[in-house]
TrEMBL record, chain A:
<dbReference type="InterPro" id="IPR016072">
    <property type="entry name" value="Skp1_comp_dimer"/>
</dbReference>
<dbReference type="GO" id="GO:0016567">
    <property type="term" value="P:protein ubiquitination"/>
</dbReference>
<dbReference type="InterPro" id="IPR001232">
    <property type="entry name" value="SKP1-like"/>
</dbReference>
<dbReference type="InterPro" id="IPR016897">
    <property type="entry name" value="SKP1"/>
</dbReference>
<dbReference type="Pfam" id="PF01466">
    <property type="entry name" value="Skp1"/>
</dbReference>
<comment type="pathway">
    <text>Protein modification; protein ubiquitination.</text>
</comment>
<feature type="domain" description="SKP1 component dimerisation">
    <location>
        <begin position="114"/>
        <end position="161"/>
    </location>
</feature>
<dbReference type="GO" id="GO:0009867">
    <property type="term" value="P:jasmonic acid mediated signaling pathway"/>
</dbReference>
<protein>
    <recommendedName>
        <fullName>SKP1-like protein</fullName>
    </recommendedName>
</protein>
Automatic annotation (TrEMBL), chain B:
<dbReference type="InterPro" id="IPR001810">
    <property type="entry name" value="F-box_dom"/>
</dbReference>
<protein>
    <recommendedName>
        <fullName>F-box family protein</fullName>
    </recommendedName>
</protein>
<dbReference type="InterPro" id="IPR013187">
    <property type="entry name" value="F-box-assoc_dom_typ3"/>
</dbReference>
<dbReference type="InterPro" id="IPR055290">
    <property type="entry name" value="At3g26010-like"/>
</dbReference>
<dbReference type="Pfam" id="PF08268">
    <property type="entry name" value="FBA_3"/>
</dbReference>
<feature type="domain" description="F-box">
    <location>
        <begin position="15"/>
        <end position="50"/>
    </location>
</feature>
<dbReference type="InterPro" id="IPR017451">
    <property type="entry name" value="F-box-assoc_interact_dom"/>
</dbReference>
<dbReference type="Pfam" id="PF00646">
    <property type="entry name" value="F-box"/>
</dbReference>
<feature type="domain" description="F-box associated beta-propeller type 3">
    <location>
        <begin position="73"/>
        <end position="247"/>
    </location>
</feature>
Length: 166, 397
């Protein structure tokens, strides 16, 4: 029967809902399939508790970063993607400079997407592991609250870890 | 950069997020980044962070061992035992640490990643230290007086981030009521890293002169001393109580005495191997938690290993009742399939899987070894009592 697939298609069509995510930084909007967006626990909680309107505003995340997040969610919502494919795709998403990664880790944290939080944190760790601690301090804008004496004492305790560093 | 500054500030202010990143760093970077700020230092040293970074406190990632044939400065060998995610973390482990002024340092025991060591120097007598080979931090124990019989480390991070050291010394001889029996008086002292001092535990006790208190095994929150002649004692560290541990009987007809070939702890299990006669077959016994007795955990036959390494079937030159192999360690996996033995056969260190009986070479150690004085060491020269499990941990000493 030729009409059977047609019927099925029609029956399933209303199931495929979409959501619109809107960056509140530059008002960019993204229309995504609901099952893709639901990988974010934050969005899932909003949808489950009927707090989500047609457009979900996403504060503090730029369109550029939101696009990366959605790319990640799309990849991981695809049931036919192999583990290897996902690994490669993840590596592509996090092949960014440190400040983009920091934006991305915040977004993953805010939207509560565990996998993205993990790969981004790992990439940040890999990017900073061979840097001198002064550079790390600068990247994260951490104020050095040690006195010179205290800092020397902490450093002396782990002198071996500073081999090859000034 | 300024467009990012708000994100940077948000990350920097979020301890959970910073910890999420720091937890993925190799040890060397972590130790360096303690210098970033006081806040980072405290993040890196919280017990919670330490537990999260190495969630399996029984995960043995390598083995340190040295030759039992040499008394002075034996070369310390390290072999990695797992395909770790951070191979660089193991690479630095070859030098334990630098103790100022120490001429030599030897490991006495290992316990969940911490080592108890002794060192000699020109200036002082033997000194004892607790060392973390992962962070290379060490703490020197306050001096002990008396005729020291042995020192054992008690540390279990699942119970407490603090460790204890149990020391046994022989007290000045008092007139024994039964002078014809070779009895001795011993006193136990306990050092606690929480208080930083030694204190006597209980009254002196009497035990057979032959009692060995040298290398106790920490298991079941007690130090367990295996004794080849006479009673084997244990000392519960929590309630400071001595007990007698049962030992399987010597098989009938064995006149040469007890033949311990391995004892040690892994993943909360206490194991014992005795081998009588030149055989490749043996039983690994495991102790019941309530000390009620031993049960057979593994039946091992190294026949296949012997076919691949026929030298191991030769008798030991200095003990004709033994085949030429030694068990360096028994390491239990999280699942039973992951359990294995580290074996020493002439010229090789092997890993023998207890579940599927497969084996592979880990490292060459040379068929015989000539030390700097021209003394030739035997082909079997590494034993369990000089082999120490390396578990990566960030606990402070």
């Amino acid at each position: 029967m030729a009409s059977a697939p047609e019927n099925e298609k029609n029956a399933s069509a209303p199931e495929k809902k979409t959501l619109t995510l809107k960056s509140m930084i530059n008002n960019e909007e993204f229309v995504v399939d609901e099952h893709v967006a639901l990988q974010s626990v934050t969005i899932k909680n909003m949808v489950d508790s009927d707090c989500a309107g047609d457009v979900i505003p996403v504060p503090t995340i730029s369109g550029e970063i939101l696009a990366l997040v959605i790319e990640y969610c799309k990849n991981h919502a695809n049931p036919s993607a192999s583990e290897d494919d996902l690994k490669k795709a993840d590596a592509g998403i996090v092949a960014k400079d440190i400040y983009t990664l920091i934006d991305l880790v915040l977004a993953a944290n805010f939207l509560d997407i565990k996998g993205l939080l993990e790969v981004t944190s790992q990439k940040i760790a890999d990017s900073i592991k061979d840097l001198p601690h002064q550079d790390v301090r600068e990247i994260f804008g951490v104020e050095n609250d040690y006195t010179p004496e205290e800092e020397a004492a902490v450093r002396a305790e782990h002198d071996w870890a500073f081999e090859g560093f000034p | 950069m300024s467009e990012h500054s708000s994100s940077v500030d948000q990350v920097a202010a979020n301890d959970d997020l910073v910890a999420e990143i720091l937890i993925r760093l190799p040890v060397k970077s972590l130790m360096q980044f303690k210098s970033v700020s006081k806040r980072w230092l405290s993040l890196i040293t919280t017990p919670h962070f330490i537990r999260c970074r190495n969630p399996d406190p029984s995960y043995v990632s390598g083995l340190f061992f040295y030759s039992s044939m040499r008394r002075l400065n034996p070369e310390l060998i390290f072999i990695p035992l797992q395909n770790d995610k951070n191979p660089t973390d193991n690479a630095y482990s070859t030098t334990l640490t630098t103790l100022p002024g120490a001429l030599s340092i030897s490991i006495l025991s290992s316990c969940y990643g911490l080592f108890c060591c002794s060192s000699y120097s020109h200036a002082t007598d033997r000194q004892f230290h607790i060392l973390n080979p992962t962070t290379k931090q060490f703490a020197s124990l306050p001096k002990l007086q008396g005729e020291l019989q042995g020192l054992s480390l008690a540390f279990d991070p699942s119970r407490s981030p603090h460790y204890k050291v149990v020391c046994v010394w022989r007290t000045i001889s008092v007139l024994s009521t039964k002078p014809y029996q070779s009895e001795c008086h011993f006193q136990i002292e306990i050092y606690s890293s929480e208080t930083g001092s030694w204190r006597a535990s209980g009254d002196p006790f009497t035990a057979d002169l032959n009692n060995q208190f040298l290398s106790g095994v920490y298991w079941n929150n007690a130090i367990n001393w295996f004794n080849s002649s006479g009673e084997s004692l244990y000392f519960n560290v929590e309630d400071e109580r001595l007990g007698v541990m049962p030992i399987p009987p010597i098989p009938p007809g064995e006149w040469s005495g007890r033949q311990f070939r391995y004892y040690g702890e892994s993943r909360g299990h206490l194991h014992l191997v005795e081998i009588y006669g030149p055989t490749t077959q043996f039983v690994v016994h495991e102790m019941e938690r309530d000390y009620s007795g031993w049960f057979v955990k593994y039946q091992v036959d190294l026949h296949e290993v012997g076919l691949a390494f026929p030298d191991m079937l030769q008798r030991l030159s200095w003990d004709l009742t033994c085949c030429s192999f030694a068990i360096l360690s028994l390491i239990r996996g999280e699942e039973d399939e992951g359990s294995f033995l580290v074996l020493h056969v002439p010229g090789k260190i092997l890993r023998y899987n207890l579940a599927d009986k497969s084996f592979k070479e880990l490292r060459d150690v040379g068929p015989e070894h000539c030390d700097s004085n021209g003394v030739i060491e035997d082909s079997i020269r590494y034993f369990w009592f000089h082999a120490f499990q390396y578990i990566e941990t960030l606990y402070c000493v």
